[in-house]
Amino acid sequence: MTNNKILESIIKDRPNPLMLEESKFSFLSNFILDFCKSINCSKSSKFCNNCEDCKKIEQGKYFDLYIVNFYDGVVKKEEVLKLMEALKYSSLEKVGNKFFILQGIEKASKQITNLMLRTIENPFKNTYFIFTTRNKNAVLETIKSRCFTYKLKGQQDLVNDILKRKEIDPKYFDYLLISHYEIEEMLNFYDSKSFTKIIEFSIRLKDGKNNPVECKKNLNDFKKMTYYEIEKILYYFLNLNQNSIDIYRMINDIKLNINKTLIFNKLLDEIK
Question: Is the pTM above the cut of 0.70?
């Protein structure tokens, strides 16, 4: 079933709670917003994109739409509790519907998943829960069993067309594709100062690998970088050496805030 067919199906049936299994470049964010618009829109059986409620959701101005994204980093239980508390009260919007979107539920702590479980078992009125995952097998079984689950397909051809239309240098295509899951994040990264910084540093690191003076300078610069930037550097070298199990492991462990000197030394060992 195509993503459009899945969207048509859930617009018709309005499953709640909903779990979406994300593939790379499945345009998940647009899919979720379109579903939310369909529930609020009074001008169309699907969504019109022109009425006030559709525009509010599209522009991020709908006050009763709450998003928690575990892929952005560590999310504290207190942050989720605060949002969950807001769901108990009357809607701030006239249309009366509330949406709670939790991206990356497989990364949520046991405390948070148990809280979500209790909530979806006793849902608040006019409240829709949407969970997303990139690894369904890692999601708590009791959560999965209570959700209507759909798997979205990646749209690689569409992504390639977008990269060409944006006139992005083709030599960076593979790097950008391997280091991102969503097209919006990828384009924002390419347009940011971080992109140039990371490319220049990675080239310098590769060229100076066997020079002790350059290595010392590169280590000092490396330690000043954020873990987000370090992750992108790791992806740069993973793109050059896709068989490196150690680079894969370092990427998976980066959210644990591992010692930066240790990462640097391990990365040097992997650079060909």
Answer: yes
